[in-house]
Amino acid sequence: MTTSATAATGLRNTTDGGRFLAVAGLRKSYGTGVVTPVLRGTDLELERHRIGVILGPSGSGKSTLMNIVGGIDRADGGTVEVDGERLSDFTDDQLLEYRRTRVGFVFQFYNLVPNLTAGENVEVVSNISEKPLQTDDVLAAVGLADKKDRFPCELSGGEQQRVAIARAIVKSPRLLLCDEPTGALDVETSLGVLALLQRVNAEFGTTILMITHNSAIADMTHSVFRMRDGQVEDVTHHDQPVPAERIQW
Ligand SMILES: Nc1ncnc2c1ncn2[C@@H]1O[C@H](COP(=O)(O)OP(=O)(O)OP(=O)(O)O)[C@@H](O)[C@H]1O
């Protein structure tokens, strides 16, 4: 069943979740002389253990919003709360600690270290994490137990993205942010990576927020946020997301 909220902040009443991410009235502009407003009072709420996706045309502010939620950038106004903590009140050191320990990032082009093996790419993150998962367990979870000693150039695009996901989840982040995670992959490989993200969400309980141009991905998520001109203009919730393998691409 699908329910549609009229207000961008509309939050479902469920027993499973509870509010995990709350963005309210977020504003961000770029430029000094000519100021360009990019986020114009953006509101978004996502429940714990859910998968959310932000859809919207190029330039609508998706990456800007995600960078602020990930603690990579700061807003000019408004608030972001993650798991009860208000990012906008953090000092730079607290924001660094938040980025390092509480958030995992997955990008379109994997960003693996080329002269480290798959296992080593995961280990460099696990070594600086407070309570890391076991590298072998995480590589097994992403289906790459047998490719631990391969270098990125010896892996397919889909396999490299799986390493990137392993690297992002080895620190047990509460929040996984994915920026066009399938943007560089063919359809079949994309569906495999999306299925993996659904499994990470189900098995590790990680709350996931993705951004994409591909509206086909919406069906596999719990919450769909449509952005336009720096605002979330529509929110849709799915009580029963479709398994990624069954997405109509
Ligand atoms: N560091 C920056 N300095 C100046 N302008 C910026 C900066 N970062 C983003 N912008 C501008 O802000 C607007 C929103 O960019 P953003 O990357 O958030 O959009 P997006 O929806 O993620 O787009 P895309 O889908 O193309 O990645 C764009 O017009 C962009 O040019």
UniProtKB/TrEMBL annotation:
<dbReference type="InterPro" id="IPR003593">
    <property type="entry name" value="AAA+_ATPase"/>
</dbReference>
<dbReference type="InterPro" id="IPR015854">
    <property type="entry name" value="ABC_transpr_LolD-like"/>
</dbReference>
<dbReference type="InterPro" id="IPR017871">
    <property type="entry name" value="ABC_transporter-like_CS"/>
</dbReference>
<dbReference type="InterPro" id="IPR027417">
    <property type="entry name" value="P-loop_NTPase"/>
</dbReference>
<dbReference type="GO" id="GO:0005886">
    <property type="term" value="C:plasma membrane"/>
</dbReference>
<dbReference type="GO" id="GO:0016887">
    <property type="term" value="F:ATP hydrolysis activity"/>
</dbReference>
<dbReference type="GO" id="GO:0005524">
    <property type="term" value="F:ATP binding"/>
</dbReference>
<keyword id="KW-0547">Nucleotide-binding</keyword>
<protein>
    <submittedName>
        <fullName>Putative ABC transport system ATP-binding protein</fullName>
    </submittedName>
</protein>
<dbReference type="InterPro" id="IPR003439">
    <property type="entry name" value="ABC_transporter-like_ATP-bd"/>
</dbReference>
<dbReference type="GO" id="GO:0022857">
    <property type="term" value="F:transmembrane transporter activity"/>
</dbReference>
<keyword id="KW-0813">Transport</keyword>
<feature type="domain" description="ABC transporter">
    <location>
        <begin position="21"/>
        <end position="249"/>
    </location>
</feature>
<dbReference type="Pfam" id="PF00005">
    <property type="entry name" value="ABC_tran"/>
</dbReference>
<dbReference type="InterPro" id="IPR017911">
    <property type="entry name" value="MacB-like_ATP-bd"/>
</dbReference>
<keyword id="KW-0067">ATP-binding</keyword>
